[in-house]
Amino acid sequence: MHILVVTETYPPEINGVARTLAELVGGLRTRGHTLSLVLPRRRAGTATSVVVESGLVHHEVKGLPLPGYPELQFGLPSRGLFERLLRTQRFHAAYIATEGPLGYAALRACERHGVATLSGMHTNFHQYSRHYHVGLIAPLLLRYLRHFHNRVDATLVPTTAMAAALFEQGFERLRVWPRGVHAQQFDPRHRRAELRAAWGLGDDDLGVLHVGRLAAEKNIDAVFTAFAAIRARRPEARLIVVGGGPIERQLRARHPDTLFAGPRTGRDLAEHYASADMFLFPSKTETFGNVTLEAMASGLAVVAFDLAAAHELIRHGHNGLLADADDDAGFVHQACRCTEDDDLRLQMKRHARETALQQDWPRLILELERLFVDCGTEGRDDDLEDAVRTSERP
Question: What's the rounded Cα separation, in Å, for the pair 131 and 284?
Fold first, then answer.
């Protein structure tokens, strides 16, 4: 298949959406498909630039800084580019990952040219708006998102709970496509005594980890509240925070005893996970929360609210601990429970790894491939089945 992918975030940016898009693109390329990727450019230069790799063509277009995230860009409409691409090349389908001006222009162009479209609900922007002093526009933003997603052939969501919630809000043609993890990369075997020593931890001391973007909508204060209660019980415990973001400077000033490791990637990130003992994830605005699954694959006991990936993957008391979504005190209580019961924590660490091993990316890419076929063969493109059969030949 030849697939058009439109997104406003992509590596080397570090966030869950960018990492998911990298897995989508890389997985489909591995399956033998060709992709054309349209995204805002990350450097000064001409309005549109093209970078060609094996099985992948990047088209970089003009963008502007995203409010609240100046290091991210939202793409300008680029109608001419989409018209030229769709007029001169044959696309079996399109995946539109973001709903801004760039994504909307892509959707309209695909409608005009009869190209099947999938979209993904990657970010709860209508919930994020409440954290940036624009909560009054949340209903308007929700209305726009519903209008956008109800025009595509299918919207992919990462959890059944999110599908149910969006259905209640009037979203149509929802399909569940979970997120995966590379369990060989995120593995307890990457635990490093040297890293723990650098954190000031001995073999039996407690390393408490949080990985995520340091931003207002992430409910990060709950981590520090929980850790204060943990340290009252385990004075030797250390809190390690991996990630960066717009409130990092304020957090460093307010919590000088916390080890802020900054953004980490690759093997370095995997070692930070594996060298900790438990993981606190306080966000209530995630569509999934990839870091939850990465922590579980790394053999960590996870404490989270009963939402998103945690709701789907964690069995309370078996492979992690959950607090009700509106129970901040319960989150602190579960964090302390994980701290105090060593046998329970060790059991949950083992079972968390077992759960994560069932969420491998290659299987999910096969599911995604089938979703493209289902989308495209509903009266639009009979060649899709042949394209996939070709990719499946040994």
Answer: 12
